[in-house]
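The methods section describes the discrete structure representation at length, but only in general terms. An entry of this sort, consisting of the sequence and the corresponding backbone structure tokens, reads as follows:
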Amino acid sequence: MSEIKWPYANEFGQEETIESDVLILGGGIAGCFAAISAARRGKKVVVVEKGATIRSGSAGTGFDHWESACTNPCSRVTSKDIAEAYVDEQDHLSNGIMHYITCEEGWDRLCDLEEMGGKIRDTEDEFVGADFRDDETKLMFAYDYGSRFTLRVWGKTFKPALFKEMKRLGVTVCDYTEATSLLTTEENGKKRGIGAIGMDTHTGKIRVFKSKATVLCMSRPARLWLFSPDLPGLSEFRPLNSIGSGDAMGWRAGMEFTMMEKSVRAEFSAAGSSFPPYAAGNNHNTWYACTMVDSRGVEIPYLDRDGNVLKTVKERYYPVEGQKFFLKGGVIDEPKYEYRGPETMPFDELMKRGYKLPFYADMSRMPKLERDVIWGMMIGNEGKTAIPVLQYFNNKGFDPAKKAMQVYGTGWQSASFSDDERQFFGAPGGIMHDWDLKTNIDGIYAAGDQLFGSDCAGTAAATGYYAARKASAYTDTVELVEVNRADIDAEIERLYAPMYNETGYSWKELNSAVCKCMKNYCGAIKNEALLLQGLDLLKSYREEIVPELCCHNPHELVRTHEVLDIMDVAEIVLNSCLMRKSSSKTLNFVRSDYPEMDPVEDHHFITIRQENGVPVRGDVELDYFGDLKTEYEKRNQDYINGGKK
């Protein structure tokens, strides 16, 4: 068999410099909206994306709902209502700034998408007469049909529309370029961001990006506890290469993070360990509020806020009298009853009530339009579901009007993980920031999954646009500055090092080792001795394995850079866990040596940054952002009065 040749040019050792006013790192929903926002303000914009921007990111394959569009014309709640509910539900260990921006500006971004060619309404009148549809506007709602602030959308139309608009506005898009490090300088005793370094993933060419301001729009961490070396192309919502490189870059630059000790057991990952979501029956998110039955066909009832059995499917989607709103069984206004339906009932409670495994999602017992909107519109647009789920199952003869779909796991999960297999999901940790979404480094802003407490597509769009709006204003106050040549040379040496080893360890071996370290020393139950051993083990990897990493082409080199970033994020997590000397239900955080749960003296944000290689702790009071509505309006009169552009 002849040797397979690398199909791209060899540009190792070559270098180019690209200048901009606003540099956007990451080309997902947040990055695209950030680029459009800055370009609309007349700024020279560059987007750096590791994949192909037209379909890259966690939302590249689509999504089926847009959360917290509180200003849409049919909404019956305010941005203040919903943002404060999120903060309260998360016991104030929550990103109120991000939530309020999402609630207040999310609908504006949907309107932008519609102007660009994205589909946000039932323009073909497929669902006329449905309880979830407003016939005047043709908008369709999810979860809470009474309050009408979460919209069903045709999300797979969005990324191509955004990409087309960026190109129309003259944005420079550097696809297949991984951002690897932030460039900074010291000005007046304070650190300032002045750009970034990247590498062409096809050719190995180095790109130096000089900018007045930078917006981090990259992914949240993944592959810290879960990784399958045998199935590296398989993952659920998020692409396998969405692993938190932005966090690692920020850590190396001295950026401040918070809630990084929070780890949440969940199925949604980029770990290469399970199948696309919603390929199994459940009653959460896309499937909400599907009728659930046990193996005998006995229906598992939904209950309202007050514990009353809901007798019709329609009732599942409306708050009861005196209840303002609810979010898919999660945030419920003035809850009075612990059990809110099968999506939240503990497994032991289901067994106690006599239900028999396995469970099934039975759409045949639902009204036709409710069935069609789940198995059709929503499954057809949610991430990674259109082809492997909807198309495949339809081709195999699945008919939701006649057949039920088995639930894997015990609840809404489509996959079950053990307690030490933890993922960043459910309001995870991330970058600490102010009301401008500015980090502790001047000139560097964050949006989307980079923010602590990050949420879904609506949050990415709203915060991306907002962060670039603030970054654009900042660029009017500064000039481009020269980059320190020594910083560039040091990064090039780091990036190319694995290519000089003819034999050695592969990126898969190191990723597996990091995951094993995190499972053993940063699992469900933590203590100081274990965490310190974890840090010591990572140190040994850096000293013994990293110098022996071996790559044969740019693809392997990029994967290797990702795992080095994963190691940096693991270091942040381990040190953050050491800093919180108590347990916390809200953070899903348990220390055997500090078992007291959520003591008053520890109920605040713990921040962490790196200074000269040493982790530095900070403490920030809850609700540091003040009254959300007041503080937002104080800082955004230009947007409010300027036509919201």
